[in-house]
Amino acid sequence: MNPDYLKILENARKKSSENKKFLDKLKTKKPKDLDIVTNNLNDEAFEKINCLDCANCCQTTGPLLLNKDIDRLAAELKLKPSIFTEKYLKIDEDNDYVFSTLPCPFLGSDHYCHVYESRPNACREFPHTQQRNILQKLKITYHNTHICPAVSLVVEGLKQKYVL
Fold first, then answer.
1. 100 with 66: CB under 8 angstroms?
2. Which stretches within 15-161 are classed as H helix?
3. Tens of pLDDT along 134-159?
4. Sequence spans of domains, the chain
């Protein structure tokens, strides 16, 4: 991983408690412009962060796979959904399908996703800082500060915007 990205993630770990308190407080304040501000910060962060220089999300966390994700991936790989499930998935403690191994079995050494066009919805939406209803996603945003350097930058930007 890019050394600058490692520094950003280390900074997020050091500020973990501070970030949690901030995001909890932000949730109670409910700023009306939070979606717009977060989306803009997301865009700024990804001007600095290149996912192909990182891929930490694909290396350390597994997405939840819905039936439609399984069907789409199985079709991409020309497998029956049952064979795909048996070969690549397990059921986690929440009774959800997730990949049975990490890093993601479809992550190449070049950090490219071999099933990018058919990737699970959770991968499509990650890191969730470019969506609407950010207020409802602050818990996952906090979690993602430890995984994605761009999310760490977004949260630092939110702390500058909303001095609570």
1. no
2. 16-29, 34-48, 56-60, 67-76, 81-88, 121-125, 138-144, 149-161
3. 999 999 999 999 999 999 999 999 99
4. 3-58+128-161, 64-125
